Amino acid sequence: RKPVGAPEDASPRPVTKVGVLGAGLMASQFALLFARRLGVPVVITDVSQERVDAGVARITGEVDKLLDRGRVSPDDANRIKALVSGSVSYDAFADADWVIEAVFEEMSVKQEVFRKIEQVIAPDAILATNTSSLSVSEMGSVLSDPSRLVGFHFFNPVPVMPLLEVVRTEQTSDETLVTALAVAKTLKKTAIITADQPGFVVNRVLARVLGEAMRGVEEGTSFDVVAQGAAPLGLPMSPFELLELVGLPVGAHVLDSHHAAWPERFYPGDGLKKLAEFGHILTRDKKGNATGYDPAAVKLVAPARRD
Ligand code: 3HC
């Protein structure tokens, strides 16, 4: 089904090479997806050779897992691995026509990366950002051609979650937008076109649920009772498991940015920031299955428990 708001009269640009700025967990996951589904060379970069190597190794490891589970053939596994390469130099991006960033979630860092990459890439190459909560148009204000920038927001876990938010700014051209929609389709994701506002659509809803879950704990209800109370919402995991899945620092950043945009409507995330520094909420068995809540985490945010 065609996404609501998709332009009628523009044609997508062909994508023959993908550049991924950032080699962290999420970036590696979608770099693999680009190589697997688009079948084009994908180059990843980061600030050090170690990080680049770790990113490529993570991708290779994930391809091996797909092979072990019979999800890809041995030929496909070799083909995907051959498509992925790493480089610390932006020069490797010179012939990329689709470049997506997933670097540290800080406006100045992202702007700096885009400012530099625009010097290297072709004038008609498209730029995308996987930001979850920063303004895409503010990010694009450093570009000489902001019409080539679009938000392209994946969800965790990237290979599994079907949805993708395609964020259109006031400047995003129709050609950029339809190319993003075509890429999303080839990745087998369902795209929704969203406005460029804090949290876009999904995180705005999630920030409310996760923020209120945290607030419940901080006001004295136990993690366990809040998780049980959230169950009727039908989420596939509890709010606290979900926060750990996206990463507690990322979760805290998302809640913070919503609070900054609408202070009276969103939880400020102070307790979650303490938990992010501590590192986790749940205790887990050797297989990674949740077994309970760490008493030290409970003590950090819920000193006045009543139940
Ligand atoms: N990474 C990669 N693949 C994973 C995975 C992970 N972390 N977790 C599960 N999978 C895969 C499994 O390998 C399995 O694949 P297969 O079918 O090929 O074997 C498939 O997902 C199903 O896994 P399971 O049967 O083990 O587990 P579940 O059925 O319990 O599903 C789940 C796991 C998909 C993670 C499900 O619990 C879920 O959907 N949780 C909610 C996730 C969610 O809401 N994400 C959005 C977060 S918000 C966000 O990312 C935005 C950001 O900006 C903050």
Automatic annotation (TrEMBL):
Tell me where in this chain the 3-hydroxyacyl-CoA dehydrogenase NAD binding domain is found.
Answer: 17-196
Enumerate the spans annotated as 3-hydroxyacyl-CoA dehydrogenase C-terminal domain: 199-288
State the family named in the UniProt similarity comment for this chain.
In the central section; belongs to the 3-hydroxyacyl-CoA dehydrogenase family.
UniProt-recorded name of the protein: 3-hydroxyacyl-CoA dehydrogenase
